[in-house]
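seq:
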Amino acid sequence: MRGIRKSFEGNDVLKGVDFDVWPGEVHALVGENGAGKSTLMNILAGVHQPSGGTIEFDGRTNVVIPDEKSAQQLGISIVFQERSLFGHLNVAENIFAARQPNIFGHILRRRLQAEARRSLERIKLDLDPNTLVEELSPAQQQMVEIAKALSLEAKVIIFDEPTSSLTDKETQALFGVIRQLRSQGVGAIYISHRLEEIFQIADRVTVLKDGRWQGTTSVAETDTGDLVRRMVGRNLELRHNDAVAAHNPILLEVRGLSDPVSHPKALLKGISFNARAGEIVGFAGLAGAGRTELALSIIGIRPRGEGEIYVNGRRVTIRSPGEAIAAGVGYAFEDRKEGGLFLDMSIARNIAAAKLKRFGTWWLRDDRQSAVAVELQKSLRIACRDTSQLVQSLSGGNQQKVVLAKWLLANPKVLIVDEPTRGVDVGAKAEVHNLLYQVSREGAAVVVISSDLPEILAVSDRIYVMREGRITGELNRAEATEESVMRLASLTLPESV
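struct:
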């Protein structure tokens, strides 16, 4: 791709971008949200037409890709971040959707199964082609997407944030598949906000910023700091540097919290921990360790068996999120779209949601909501037209800022945030981290749950590690390394513990 330009309604999104990929190469494409990555790839995949520039493919010059089907016929396939599978159809039907082998409209089932099985075997996925997609794990669904791309005899496969919903183990399995594709001469384009992944899987990396090419380099010749500087145009402080006094008052204390024995998915067993004023406490662990279940139990969404909760030294009874807020505990959900935001409402109404009484008793004062929202929007640098804009139209990073703005307004004594930067770019991640630092510096206790181990290590004063519904260890900042956290996260506990 040479000198690619693209404008939407007079807005220049791509400004002369160069990009190439070779057979058997993994070429990473990085940049903040809005940098132009998706637009560039959508042009390659036939979704959009360029306003200028040229494309060469497989020895052909001045290639025109008018639509997605034409891209597939050339050998270009894309594995989208939001999976495009049909849950009620089986694996084989998804791999060959709209192009099943047939005679006069009658699907040849045996041939369909055989061809699907060959596609699955190519990526070493031991899966029955008759299995319904809705019964598969996110990682298996991602693999089916790849099998679908390979069934098109793709020469270039675009991976758009493929690990956003995968565990570390599933991510490594995906990397194994990508390396296998590389050995087979397939070119892979890899888009990710997780820069540590770039250094694990990619051969080269290209950086975009504001629709402009910022350079292409070998992964071996760059580092995270260099990529960040190119992406955002400035150095970012990605580490929490505030030392917390060990004698600050404890704002949240949990003693012996366990699930009811009768709970159909009983997991938590004797959880005890605390968080002090001005402190950021991280919770690490592998998928299924129980971190989110612990948070949901604390705020009253999940039923509790034994255990006590103390906020600012006072024992509290919390049976619902409303009671949690009244007790001074806020919770930013892991899935901000499902549990943290009202997508079809404005920014102003979302920010006001946790403190409605401030804006009226019998009816809500829109002018008051708007005034407060504008103030928070400016201080948190939420990129939007104005605060009447619907939240669903914002980028992931700005949606997360709205969630945090809501809790800044509510001013809880304790703020629990679950996966605070999932799916946001490196610049937005740094700004979200700074918001968490701000909350802690103002005297709140902040509890951060994250599957992103570098994030946990960067922001936390102390780290609790969980496995199988139990806390396996506690680390202070001096003790915490990726190795020490993973050792505790993998620790096998005796049944009597």
